[in-house]
Amino acid sequence: MEKNNKENILKKIEAIVTPVVNKMNLSLVDIEYLQDGGYWYVRVYVENLEGDITLEDCAAISNEIDEDIDSLIEQRFFLEVSSPGIERPLKKIEDYIRFKGEKSKLSLKHKVDDNKNFEGIIVDSKDGIIYLEVENGKIMKIPFSEVRKANLVYEFEEF
């Protein structure tokens, strides 16, 4: 599938999903439209900013958007609506503000200090710059526009 067509479909899916999610006082985290193992998937990730997302919430969203998305996409696909999980993606600049103090992993479009991948603690985010504390306490200034992919990193506690 052509990249522009895929992006166009993603925008149309977002236009279908956003009002449904907003009406339920939930927050849209991400939408994926991809082929995996020969099957096509539409994955919608939502969260409740004031508590946990429930299975009932996901089922209600799925039921409400299923027909509209089905009429949009020609080939067969599986629709999945779920929470983004504990290692949720960081998609918007507001995510870095919200998760200040949390550990994250960033993959960049271009190298910064000879590296495209960073892992560290989000120290701050302002004026389009993410401040990430990496090893040795060094603070990296990473332009949000350079982030290709980012997510929180969950660390298991040792006993």
Write up what this structure looks like.
The protein is an alpha+beta fold. The protein has two domains: 3-82, 2-Layer Sandwich (GMP Synthetase, Chain A, domain 3); 93-152, SH3 type barrels (Roll). It has three helices and eight strands. The chain has helices spanning 3-23, 55-72, 93-98, and strands spanning 27-36, 39-47, 77-82, 103-112, 115-126, 129-133, 139-143, 147-152. Helix 1 (3-23) packs across helix 2.
**Approximate shape:** globular
Question: On the 0-100 scale, what is the average pLDDT?
Answer: 92
Q: Helix amount, in percent? A: 25-40%
CATH topology name of the largest domain: GMP Synthetase, Chain A, domain 3
Number of strands: 8
Weakly predicted, low-confidence segments:
none
In the CATH hierarchy, what is the superfamily of the largest domain? RimP-like superfamily, N-terminal
Radius of gyration: 18 Å
Going across the biggest sheet, name each strand in turn: 7-6-5-4-8
CATH level-two architecture of the largest domain = 2-Layer Sandwich
N-to-C span: 48 Å
Number of helices: 3
Tally of discrete structural domains? 2
Defining key terms:
alpha+beta, GMP Synthetase, Chain A, domain 3, SH3 type barrels, 3 helices, 8 strands
Short description:
This protein has 159 residues and is α+β, with helices and mostly antiparallel strands.
Layout of strands and helices, then pairs:
Blueprint: H1 3-23, E1 27-36, E2 39-47, H2 55-72, E3 77-82, H3 93-98, E4 103-112, E5 115-126, E6 129-133, E7 139-143, E8 147-152
Helix pairs in contact: 1-2
